[in-house]
Write a structure and sequence with these properties.
mainly alpha; 71% helix; 2 helices
Length: 86
């Protein structure tokens, strides 16, 4: 796997990319809520779409927040150096 100059692999997500995905999940949650409020009472398909987007958005937000905390913690530990933390 290719390495970045700082030694991390390209497969790891940066904080900026996590924040972009977090914004996308919030937008998905908003779209699902709008679909649910406007069309869910008139159509079963719209109700199902609203439920699926709300579940996907909620799960995505929680997962990305956990991932953001892990990445931020790792970056802080790397910035401190091996002898600066317990």
């Amino acid at each position: 796997m290719a390495k970045r100059p700082d030694g991390s692999s390209l497969s790891t997500m940066t904080r900026r990319r996590i924040l972009y995905w977090l914004a996308a999940m919030v937008a998905l949650l908003v779209v699902g809520t709008i679909i649910g409020l406007i069309w869910a009472d008139t159509s079963d398909v719209a109700g199902m779409i609203a439920v699926v987007t709300n579940i996907a958005g909620g799960v995505g937000i929680v997962a990305l927040l956990i991932f953001l905390a892990v990445v931020t913690r790792r970056q802080r530990r790397t910035a401190l150096g091996p002898s600066d933390h317990c």
